[in-house]
Amino acid sequence: MKKGKIKGTINRGRHLFWSGVGSLMADGISVTARRVAALVLTGGGQKYWIEEELFTDEELEAQRKETFPRDITFSILMSLYNGDGDHLRESIRSVMEQTYSKWELCIVDGSDKDSPLTEEICREFAHSDSRIKYRKLDVNKGVSANLNEAIGMAGGEYISLMEQGDILHPAALHDTMVALCKGADFIYTDEAVFEGEDRSKINVINYKPDFGPDSLNGSNFIKHFTSFKKSLVEKTGAFRSEYDGSHDHEMFLRLTDTAEHIAHIPEALYYRRGISNPSGDPMPGKSEAIAAGARGVEDNLRAKGIDARVEPNGDFGFFYRVHYPIKNRSKISIIIPNYEHLSDLSKCLDSIFEKSTYDNYEIIIVENNSRSAGIFDYYDKITSEHDNIKVIKWDGKFNYSAVNNFGVKTAAEGEYLLLLNNDTEVITPEWMEEMLMYVQRRDVGVAGAKLYYPDDTVQHAGVVLGLGSVAGHVSMRSPREDGGYMGRNIFAQNYSAVTGACMMIRRDVWDEVGGLDEAFAVAYNDVDFCLKVREAGYLIVWTPFAELYHYESKSRGSNRTPGQLKTHLKEVNMLRERWSDFLEKGDPYYNPNFTLYRPDYMPKTRMR
Question: CB count, 10 Å around CB of 474?
């Protein structure tokens, strides 16, 4: 065995040992045992599914007998164009098997005249159940126009969308009704994709986050099964043919802008066949549909007075990149705490000066008890060469929060603040613009970047509450080019928190929430700050289009001293106590079906 391999094995063993010690002290034996089991059962990284029925037969029967405080009828829309007869029968039967019985199925059929089987099947079902409405169209008008015909047939207070060939779980309408009775007027569920004819052979489950406006701009993560109040359609308009192929995405943008309460049911209640167009409708080609999606996002933003430009995100399919115009080129104050680390700091500053396309910024280096002559010589050199660099001294004991607060209060002149670690290196020239275009919005408080380890694996792609002990980075150590679970690594979206290693904040938001809490001297100060920002009513946005290297050790924490470990555990418990309500409810941007013991969107392991 090579020495490097031995060293790597020892480091990993030390890291696992100290992680285990920390887990035992913070969370106890039971939780630590489950973390170890997750590593063992998954072979250290391979994803797999263990399928169990969501409800027992007894529970489904109880749902059929349940009464609700509201009398609601769902109008389920289905547009047909030719298609497979057996798949159509399965779809219709899955509606008829719903435990909630107040529904109507509105089917519009634009099939060719030489495909009589579709009409024959539908008329047979309509004859057997009066809740099934069928209309044969004289001419196929395209998917949006056909669905609008189905809306015209709908007599229910809520509209639901379903595609031919797909299958509803028997509890889909029941659980939607539960959410509706709690005040929701737009509801969506998780969904599973299966191959072939056997619904039990799941290819992948799309466990979705709760609603985030930036997430929906970047991708139609909502998809199916979706139900919404019919009056929302009357306010915002029906489907629009110019967005065929991405018609549901464009409509969801308008509906969620108007909805008062958007609810997500974290259960896979919709089963989608693993083919691109199960309904068989003659749809635009993929590239045309992707382009239609980009136009839909752009037009929706412009209708709200935002002159943004939207483009497909390269070769990744139905994912979009939004370019918001920079309203004014206000000054950005970059705060960099530093102790020694001449090499790291010089690399960081060189990358800012050489690569950044944004020019109205200042750099404030908060010097914290360095002793070597070399670092002070370097300070003299850079301040003489650049008139937008200040070096100020913090003589107190290291406290990350206090150092940054001091830098902001003492020297920052910018309307925007950018907290930056000294061991980072800029990759994206427009890194500042990519974060600034979000925090300039009045509804956004914080924007974060995508960070990589030196080996081009992901170090930061958003922070999830509860992950690890109390909060952790998702997608850690995944390859840089990996799109991530359901593309989560490649489009800007809303998260509960982002890392303070590179985080931009509007100055008025910083002042409103009181900056960083100095009780968090080393860790979780960024998470605590973001939660304060969220509590104040602002969004947190993570963008993959601001990229930097972060030369933080992959095994950070593996060499903690007992004193450092004690401080870490103190801050873990402090965050846990302060934000217990958030932690108990679960992170809204991370599905509760994922384990909290791994960062790679691994579904929970069900022990048998």
Answer: 26
